[in-house]
Amino acid sequence: MARPYLLLSPAILSLALLMVAPVVFVLIYSFWLRTAEGLDVPAFQFGNWVNFFTDGFYWRALASTFKTALITTVICILLGYPTAYFLARAQIRNRGLLLFLMFLPFWVSYIIRTMSWINVLGKNGFVNAVLVGSGLIDEPMKLLYNDFSVIMGLVYFMLPYMIINVYVSLDGIDRNLESAARVLGCTPWQSFREVTLPLSLPGLGAGSLLCFVLAAGSYVTPRLLGGTDTLFFPDLIYEAIISQLDWPFGAVLSIVMLLALGLVIAVYNRFMNLSDVYRSFAR
Amino acid sequence: MTDQKRYERLLAAVQSGDIDRRSLLRIIGATAAAVGVTGGPMGLLTRKAMAAGVESIRFDGWGGIVSEAFHNNAFPQFTEKTGTKVVEGEFGDTDEFISLVKASQPGEYNVFLVSGVYDYFRFIKMGLADFVNEANIPNLDKLLPATLAAFRNESEGKLAAVPFDYGTTGIAYNRKYISDEEAQAGHKLLWDEKYKGKIGLYDGFQTRAWMSSLYTGQDPQGATDTAAMWEATRKQRDLVLKYWGSGQEFIDLMSKEEIILSDGWSGRVAFLQQNGHDIGFIDTAQAGFAWIEGLMVLKGSPMEAAEQLINFCIEPAVAIAIAEGQNYPPSLDPTKVELTEKVKKLPGFDPTGKFDNYIWEKASYWFDNQDAYKKEWDRISKGA
Question: Quick one: how far is CA B220 from the chain centroid?
Answer without folding.
Answer: 21
